[in-house]
Amino acid sequence: MPPRALTLDVTKTSYVCHSCLSNLQALHPNPQLWLTRHASNLARRLPPRLQPAARRTRGAQAPLSKQKLQQTLAQLQGGLPSPETSSRPDEKPNQDITINYFNQDINGHRQQLRNDEEFSAMSGGLDIDVESAINRLEEQMVNTVEMLKRMERGGMQDKAEKLRGRFKRSLRLQYKGKTGPEDEEYGLLRIPGFSGPKQRTIASLNKFLSRESVVKDGIPKHKDLAECWKFYSAARKTLSSAWGNVPREVWDFMWMILSWEGVENPNRMRHIYVLAKDMSAAGVALRGSQQLLAIEAMFIEGWQKEAIESWRKAVVTLGSKPDTFRSYWELGVRMCSIHGDTERAQRAADTLLKSARESDARILIPIVRALSIKEATLEQAWETYQNMRSLLGETMTIEDYDEVIGSFLGSNCVEYALQAFVDMMFSGAINVRGKTRLPIAVSNQFFVGKWLKRLIGAGDLDGAYKVVAYLQGKGIAVSPIQLNGLIGAWIRSDSAEGLEKAESLAWDMIRSRLAYVDMRQRAGSMERPATLFDPIGLTARVNPNEDESEFRCATRATAETFSLLAENYCTRGLHDRLGKLWKAFRHSEIGTTSFLLNQVLRSYTENGQANEAVALYQSMTQDHNVRPDAHTFLALFNTLSVNRLIQRDAELSERDIIDGRRFFKDMVRSKWMFDSPDDFIYLPRTILFTKLKAGDYSGMIIAARAMKLLFDFAPPESLLIELAAGTATLRVKTRRNVTRVMEGSKLIGGLIRQAREELLREGYDVNNMTVEQKAAELHQVLEKLILIKAKAEHLRPEVMRPALVEAADHMGVHDIVFGQDARQIAEHRKVIRPTMIAEE
């Protein structure tokens, strides 16, 4: 790159060379506004380093040739005719010429250059150290070539050829530049003019710019985006002392990276805003697309008035050119609409839509959104929507309608939103605006359900709630299925506001359910319901400070409503609210579901009320005919002390053996089936660990045999290792756990080898075992492990049989385990077909 300014001190002649003269003309370029482009001959007034590229492919500017410079000096010093003087033969050149070279920095300070080499370095845009390094590299390459020639002359042609091939491959791997996302090419990128220990930030930025992996295949990676801003922001302060040293190609390259649009670049506008200001400070003219993005970044960063003013001033340079016409006017519509200047936004939209150039009527959506905010301009917003709809015609998509509907719902204009949805569903054939009673095609749960489902699916939960309130005011009852979906969506949002709204709506539905039950009971007893029967104190709202005139949902709660609240309360540990919910459920005359029961059991257990949990289970199953499921028995086994207390108590462990056997008996006798793979894994695992911790070894053997027949359960090898180690999980990597797991794995491996040896002695092919044989082998290993834990591995079977028979009687599986009663097994099976496959 040529120096910023060159001044010649000619002592014996007035001659100035053509190269220096061209640089003297660019000493003080006219200042330009950083966000506007003028239609004048700007490119001709700027120095070469600031002129925009004439082609899309941009490479580094070629430095002044050293040979050409020497020829020029020889011509001047030797009296040879130069291109500038050859046209004047009557004028004799002066033989004695002394040329002094100067460099002028950005602040106007001039410094005389020492010699021709320093002038060559400054005019080429390279530091002296860099040029010296290049010269050394050239010398090394020449020496390498000479060495290869000597090896060939010495009879080492094969080795020389091999080294020559490696040398050529290394040359092919040299830096070839970078390619942007639009196939634009960037040459060797580097910021010259900074050196020394205080310029480490510039060195880091240069190292990043020279990295070949940056923007590979024209697509910046997340690492490229982060590191580009990291190194540039660190170097900004140093660069600001000499902005002119930054080549235009470096600015374009950093702009290309930092302006990349995607989720990987969340701070895109902030970075563009800073980069555009720096480019303006450096005197670099922004291209049209860059100016538009810089204006948008300024607007988003909070400088709305300034951005709109910059946009207005660029109407001639950007608003009339074909390549920026559409983007310019669309940006103006969006900015003016957000800023509230709807009149200017409308004029910009009219200019765009009425022009002969291609345009998109969807640009009217921001205007609709801005006009719908104020009641005074609501009709104007509706007319703008109608205009857009007529312009788009059949090309208007569902997403376009969603944008319009969301705009009206956000402004509490539910009637306009409903009309837009009706337009979408019926192509504008039905008009509902201003009508007290809605047409039958609209006032039905099917139509309303489709709208609410779409709003909830799009995440517009507040809009869906407004629709519910509006339709209830029109006498349209919303289905509890849709409201339960809204409650669930609010709960899943994990926000305090969402949880509060979900709880408020759910309790409104519960109040409606209790009021309905009260009216039904009074009607049955021929009493006129004067006041609402409130047995659990639900008359007051959840928040007593709420306005009583606020919307109250009339849709009645269902079992799903109670289940959603119960799960949420249980997860958050709100035992008191769960107790209130359970009390309301008891008065709602809704058939009790096992899901709600399981949540209450779990809450009781976590709150230290295990006895109350067991009593509730007995009451629900015996008095109210609630059918338990796998989750119910998981909750019951977790009420035992061995699963709740850290320190074991001998007396409580004895009680756990009795209760555990009783729970197992209830589990076998109850009519339920496995409904998920998780239950199928965790229930047998919980039962085995519970009996192991309680010391019920005989009950553990009976449970394993019964679950094999009823669950098709085969203990996987990982579970055997956990049981052998005595730890409930292999993922806790403490030193003690690791030691226990290693010992357990060694024990299980030995037991499996013993089982294989027994099969070999019996004549089985252990290399081609069937699934049933593998399951039988793992069951055999499990029983041997239980005997080892019980220190009864040397007892004969007849000695252990009485204890096993007693356990089977207590657990209600004697006929199943010892009698192998096919009828009993078929009646109490919990799986339709075998689903558990033994792990190898």
Distance between the termini: 70 Å
**Strands of the largest sheet, in order across it?**
1-2
Which bin fits the share of residues in helices? 55-70%
Q: If helices are DSSP runs of H or I spanning 4 or more residues, what is the number of helices?
A: 37
Which characteristics define this entry?
Pentatricopeptide repeat protein; disordered C terminus; repeat; PPR_rpt; 840 residues; two-stranded antiparallel ribbon; disordered N terminus; TPR-like_helical_dom_sf; 4 strands
Polypeptide structure, described:
- The strands form 2 sheets. The chain has a two-stranded antiparallel sheet.
- Residues 1-15, 21-66, 68-95, 171-176, 529-533, 539-549 and 834-840 have low confidence and may be disordered.
- Helices cover 58% and strands 1% of the residues.
- The chain is mostly helical and 840 residues long.
- It is flat, with a radius of gyration of 42 Å.
- Strand 3 (178-179) and strand 4 (185-186) form a beta hairpin.
- Helix 12 runs antiparallel to helix 13 (325-339), helix 27 runs antiparallel to helix 29 and helix 31 (697-710) packs across helix 35 (797-810).
